[in-house]
Design a protein that fits this description.
single chain, mainly alpha, two-stranded antiparallel sheet, 8 helices, globular, DUF5662, DUF5662 family protein
Length: 178
């Protein structure tokens, strides 16, 4: 029961934090819909089974099995994840290619990363946390270059100016034409 309540609490706190950040950015519908798939059985049950409290249970499931069915389900239904935007190349371009994400989903991804850092790091969180996490995995991320540049610039802005100024910047300069 500890894992059940721990996982339910963690995903709900995370969802609430992302929703509030999305609302502040003016992304009301995305804030409401963010991560609803985490409550579906294919994502929720492994989340409970592999719950640890200090990191995503997806990471533990991948360590044990080499993949996560919950993650495969989640990334395919939530366009704020860069993995959602991977496509097969055409005849001249073999393999997988990243597609540029719409700006509103990049902003939701920014909100998601800030909220996840706060949720998992708890009192160790600081304004550079999400940026540091992103840069730690920078070379392993297959994002479209424009998407990657925008996310990195938002995380750097947040690191250097704090949350309130970053939200104002997003509303005024990033989402101004939305």
């Amino acid at each position: 029961m500890h894992n059940f309540w721990g996982h339910l609490s963690t995903i709900t706190i995370h969802k609430w934090r992302v929703m509030k950040l999305c609302f502040r950015c003016g992304l009301y519908k995305q804030g409401l819909k963010h991560d609803l798939s985490k409550y579906s059985p294919v994502e929720f049950i492994p989340g409970v089974r592999y719950f640890q409290g200090n990191r995503s249970p997806i990471n533990r499931e991948k360590e044990l099995h080499g993949y996560s069915m919950g993650w495969l389900h989640h990334k395919g239904r939530n366009p704020h994840h860069w993995e959602y935007w991977l496509d097969n190349g055409d005849e001249a371009q073999h393999g997988v290619k990243p597609v540029r994400m719409p700006v509103n989903y990049v902003v939701e991804m920014f909100c998601d990363r800030i909220a996840a850092s706060r949720t998992y790091m708890k009192e160790k969180y600081h304004d550079a946390s999400a940026y540091e996490y992103f840069m730690n995995g920078y070379d392993r991320v297959m994002m479209h270059p424009e998407t990657k540049d925008l996310l990195q610039s938002l995380l750097e802005y947040h690191r250097d100016h704090g949350l309130d100024e970053t939200i104002a910047y997003i509303r005024k300069d990033i989402l101004k034409n939305k």
